Amino acid sequence: MTAQAFERYNPREKEPFWQNLWAERKSFVVDTADPKDPYYVLEMFPYPSGRIHMGHVRNYTMGDVVARFQRARGKTVLHPMGWDAFGMPAENAAMANNIHPREWTYANIAAMRTQLQAMGFSLDWSREFATCDEEYYHRQQALFLDFLEAGLVTRKTSKVNWDPVDQTVLANEQVIDGRGWRSGALVEQRELTQWFLKISDYAEELLTALDTLEDWPEKVRLMQRNWIGRSEGLKVRFAIANGTAADARAVEVFTTRPDTLFGAAFIALSADHPLSARLAASDPELAAFVAECRRLGTSAEAIETADKKGYRTTLEATHPFDPERKLPVYVANFVLMDYGTGAIFGCPAHDQRDLDFARAYDLPVRPVVLPPETEPAAFSVGTEAYTGPGTLYNSDFLDGMSIEDGKDAVARALETRKVEGKPQATRQVNYRLRDWGISRQRYWGCPIPVIHCDQCGVVPVPRENLPVRLPEDVSFDTPGNPLDRHKGFLDVVCPECGESARRETDTMDTFVDSSWYFARFTAPHADTPTIPAVANAWLPVDQYIGGVEHAILHLLYSRFFARAMKATGHLDVTEPFKGLFTQGMVTHETYKDGSGNWVAPADVVLDQSVTDRAARHATTGEDLVIGSVEKMSKSKKNVVDPDDMISTYGADTARWFVLSDSPPERDVQWTEAGIEGAWRYVQRVWKLVSDARAVLEQSPSTVASDDPESAAMLKVSHRAVDQVTGDVGALRFNRAVAQIYELTNAVSRFVPLAVEEPSIGRQNALRTALEHLVQLIAPMMPHLAESCWEAMGHKTLICDADWPVPDPALLVDDTVVLAVQVNGKRRGEISLPKDAPTDQVEAAALSLEPVARILDGKPARKVIVVPNRIVNVVA
Ligand code: ANZ
Ligand code: ZN
After folding, report:
1. Which of 74, 193, 605, 779 is deepest in the core (most CB within 10 A)?
2. Residue nearest to atom 29 of ligand 1 (CA)
């Protein structure tokens, strides 16, 4: 062996080298519109905030492992990247720093692209786009017009959460404790005419199709199910005993528990119910209460947590089955107008909100569902409503029935009756899912392509006039939507009548942008939103990877878009994402100084030598308090900058670390010790290859193994290939890493043997094992793998190499020893893989020397094989 000084692996030199080579050779560009064996892997595209964070590193590393693995397995892989680039932060930056949102956004994109490229992801950069590219939002406007034509868009007034400081409508999720999530201002309720996509038309379809998404996490499907919120119930019309005016003679409620009707204690109307409004007109006290309810807001959270409050009107409703029983009619703060009918009957014994309300207003609590195995006398309802199973009682003709039978009996009894000329009850399915309000009163979004004309109403912008461009010359010195003040944008001629008209100034919710980008990637520069044949060839996305925070809205909107795009001829798939994986977060310890300020990990020196870990400030030396492990966030300063990691350790080390430490669906805790461990592993693999150089320089032979050690080495190696293939295919990256470590240990033990006491078999086993090892790490540490591959004498890139295929014979768990008899007399033994096929066993037995001698060239009369135990040859 020639003494070669071991040189440490230098990622700073190697990583850019391989990245440039891949780019030069267009290794990851797929330009085929008609892919053979297509595989589409996609990670949720980033918002261009300016810098990538560890969450991105983890997410995109996982996607990259899948992409490189599938590519090696012979698939044509589409792995694109783009930017979810519209949205508020760009406008906030414009206001704060006097920089145009466009400039801010594209500068951020440039910075983040450089960072992503330094990670060595196998992305097809030729398909890159940002949603704020004119080319992209142009096609989005075309889609909008198609949807409009197909009846998938509507315009309606709705109550919105209005942030008086940011001058914008907020989604319910953006209202936190009644305040705007950004501004912190008290949110007001306003009526606005807005654009909606009719996702609720697809509620049932979006719900039932969840069952087909077998490669989605069950928890995500459950969240979607709950969000869609299907409930089967009954609309029941209550006559109002003392209602005089025509609109006050009956009130209709929606209930999912008609079986509890005999436990009804009151009727409650939403503050926004027309009847409430009419009564409030002549009742100032009620008017004040209604106003108070409005301030509470429309968010489910606000309603859930607020005290249940009501105002008792003078009206009384008649119980449908007992004309003598009168139920007081309240206006209550916990009844929503946009669900069911905006009115309920309250049954305190079996609904917690109703019970809280009844206790507050001293209303009767009459239980009507008796829990199983309970005596009526022994059962009462205190502070907790009973919502469990049971038998109906205290309920007249329903007594003794199950809940389900009771529901049906009430429906049947009331369906045929009439109140004020209408059926007293109708069965109804309700969904919690509302239409999707997409209007935003912001500049930095996709303009909604319509024109408002006094004569013609709403007129779509003619397609030949698309795109409706965002004007460049806008100012952000006053709050609100700058488009509302931009004459050049606003003033247009009506395309229908030619009179002067006004352009729509609402832009689209950025969730629209991210609801079809996956389809656009299949033909990113087409002059139609998609090229249907190409989109159909690639879609659905085989593996989608992203944060669980998008489990509901983004995924539901995308599922709706796929259907809407199918209805308008842009696609022919209904489900956009075949496989979904939601990865955990990257966490880190937190540190605080004596004055309670957070301290960044980069400024912390950890003392690991004492049993109690201690931390001090790197520059001041001050003792620090080590706090809990939290999701990396700027607010707690517990962030590690990927750039710092790359410049110190290289991308491969960071990639290896985020894959190795915990199951990918769980959180991974970033530690200095962990990253150092990964760094040592990188060096170890490199050293193994260097140490084996002398052996690898020998020309390969076909001898598989010629001694037990090399046979064992091959076995370990093939088994590792088999297991890593299974684990990576199932996205169990940490288990794959564990297998690779085992293989590495085995190779480490084998190298000295093969180097110091070489044989052809050993040389060959070592070559095979090392090649396997390098191929297995290639999807995870692609730069190191290329360097090793080259060092092993290969003239082609490992990113173009086929994935290794294990030899099934070497995967057999263990060998068994079978006794061989001739005419009942033991003549020897053979050792074979367990469960070896009978003909193989027979052949081995017959070729055994003593057996062959006895047979003396004549065929055996009979061979009896008892699997894994004995072979009897009848001569
Ligand atoms: C009487 C009753 C008795 C109810 C009982 C429940 C339990 P889901 O399952 O979400 O559809 N409800 C109906 N419309 C409402 C509205 N606009 N605002 C607030 N609550 C409303 O819930 C349906 C139940 O929620 C309905 O069934 C109704 O209360 C209430 F033991 O009717 B129930
Ligand atoms: Zn007109």
Report:
1. 779
2. 255
Ligand 2 center–CA 491 separation, angstroms: 13
Pairwise CA distance, residues 244 & 763, whole Å:
100
- Note the pTM of the prediction, 2 decimals: 0.85
- Rounded to whole angstroms, the Cα distance separating 706 from 139 reads 65
Residue 343, classed as helix, strand or coil, is: strand
> What confidence tens digit (pLDDT) does each residue in 272-284 have?
999 999 999 999 9
Measured between alpha carbons, how far is 656 from 682 in angstroms, rounded to an integer?
Answer: 9
> Which ligand places an atom closest to the C-alpha of 381?
1
The residue contributing the CA closest to ligand 1 atom 28 is 255
In terms of Cα–Cα distance, which of 659, 670, 669, 667 is closest to 584? 667
For ligand 1, mutation pick of 238, 252, 255, 355 (most atoms within 8 Å of CB): 255
Pocket, ligand 1, Cβ cutoff 6 A: 231, 254-257, 260, 334-336, 339-340, 342, 344-345, 347, 350-351, 430
CA 504 to chain centre: 33
Locate tokens 């196998």: which residue?
122
Q: Is residue 426 within 8 Å of residue 234, measured between CB atoms?
A: yes
Using alpha carbons, select from 65, 135, 854 the residue that is nearest to residue 525: 135
Closest ligand to 500 CA?
A: 2
**pLDDT of 602 over the 70 cut:** yes
Q: Whose CA is closest to atom 13 on ligand 1?
A: 254
Strand boundaries in 188-321, DSSP class E: 188-197, 230-239, 250-255, 266-269, 310-319
Distance CA 132, CA 84 (A): 8
For residue 493, which ligand has an atom nearest its CA? 2
pLDDT tens for each residue of 681-738? 999 999 999 999 888 877 666 666 668 888 899 999 999 999 999 999 999 999 999 9
Closest CA to 736 of 745, 727, 747: 727
Mean of all residue pLDDT scores within the chain: 92
Minimum-distance ligand 1 atom for the alpha carbon of 303: 19
Q: What is the pLDDT of residues 540-590, one digit of tens each?
A: 999 999 998 898 999 999 999 999 999 999 999 999 999 999 998 888 889
- Which of 228, 299, 339 best tests ligand 1's pocket when mutated (most atoms within 8 Å of CB)? 339
* pLDDT (mean) for 608-625: 84
Distance 176 CA to ligand 1 centre (A): 25
SS3 per-residue string spanning 357-426: HHHHHCCCCCCCEECCCCCHHHCCCCCCCCCCCCEECCCHHHCCCEHHHHHHHHHHHHHCCEECCEECEE
Given a contact cutoff of 8 angstroms between Cβ atoms, the answer to whether 655 and 61 are in contact is: yes
DSSP 744-809: HHHHHHHHHHHHHS--HHHHHHHHHHHHHHHHHHTTTSHHHHHHHHHHTT-SS-GGGSPPP---GG
Question: For residue 503, what is the DSSP state?
Answer: E
Ligand 2 (single-atom ion) residues, CB below 5 Å: 453, 455-456, 494, 496-497
Across-strand partners of 194?
Answer: 156
For position 297, what pLDDT does the model report? Answer: 62
Structure tokens at 241: 């005993």
